[in-house]
Design a protein that fits this description.
CATH class of the largest domain: Alpha Beta
Strand content: 15-25%
Number of strands: 17
Distance between the termini: 21 Å
CATH architecture of the largest domain: 3-Layer(aba) Sandwich
Oligomer: single chain
CATH superfamily of the largest domain: Mur-like, catalytic domain
Number of domains: 2
Radius of gyration: 21 Å
Shape: globular
Helix content: 25-40%
Largest sheet: 8 strands, mixed
Amino acid sequence: MQYEDLSAKLPLQEAGKMVLGLDSVRQLMGHFDHPENSLPTIHIAGTNGKGSTAKMTATILQEAGYKVGLYTSPSLVDFNERIQINGINVSDEQLMAQVDRMNQNLGSGELYTEFEIFTGLAWLVFQAEAVDFVVLEVGLGGRLDATNIVEKPLVTAITKVALDHQHILGDTLGEIAGEKAGIIKEGVPLILYPQAVEAEAAILAQATTKHVTVTQLNANEIIKLGITSDGFQAFTYKGKTYQLCLMAPYQINNAALALEIIANLESQGILIGDQAKRDGLAKTLWPARFERVAQKPDIIIDGSHNMDGILTLKEAIESYYPTRVGQKRIAILGMLADKDVAHIVATVVPLFDQMITLTPHSHRALPASELAALIEANGGRAQVASSDSEALTLAQAKLDEQDMLCVFGSFYFVGYLRKQILQG
């Protein structure tokens, strides 16, 4: 379902309005006797990797025979992508049943932000479908995020913390990590990705205050075995071997974090098993995370949009597509104006022979012409496209079979290009 169609049916505040805080969403869910607190939940925060980790965790639980609800954001094209049950997007019929229920129960003139309503719809869908577990990705930050009204999740996890949304979360890693650590609940175990010293200190301080047992992922226990003949990443973690469908090198660390989440659930008496872990990781698909959607030439779709994500994208490109004589690397790039665009451009310009700029589908978009000027100021070659289809046409005219095209930047445009490419 398109956002515009869904939004027209919902009691929403003015578009783009953000209200950080929990009182409003608690009021919303109070109309339905707080289903979020009756659903066994795994709550995941972080700057980068939280969606991938959530998807892996959900897929492992599904492979163990459970009915699993997954809530993530943002989606690439259709709203339904945000709410999944056993890997299948919520149907329009399932969604509209809960939209009707919501509208019938809210008071006259009662309005909420988009994210509050969308999160509430997810909980209502999961309750109606009687899922066994909910894997819940934080939208922004953690402490004041609408997902954070869950009172007692089974386990919480924090993925890699990096600089992003500084105008909301704080200017330093410590401040941002403190906001992420707001999902920590009294006595609820925490699984923690390796962090920079400042971020780790902020998180562990809150964990101590909340009397939480912390399991910290030890990257030294991960042994990367390389790429298998059928394209999987193979690795061992704590002496057991796994294969991962996702291509980017950093996904192995996210997979190990998901394994630690699962191990904690097993320690609570939840039956999962090694086969479900192996099958879950091997079957996890997560669009627009260094995803190859075509070959000859290769086309990679990636939603990296902050500095840390761009650095991992750079690592992946250099790993899979090292510089070769006669092979070109072309990019289609679009960014939001509130990102660290100057540093991002300086990092990516050396990677590509040509960059085509596009204005994302967002009121926060950086105009393609400004992005192109910045690329050229950094010594790159840029060309402005006025539409998604023109960007693809320009790129394809430059590509031979041995070349690669990388479409990356804001989720507000990579999903639309992905859809066009897959539809041929």
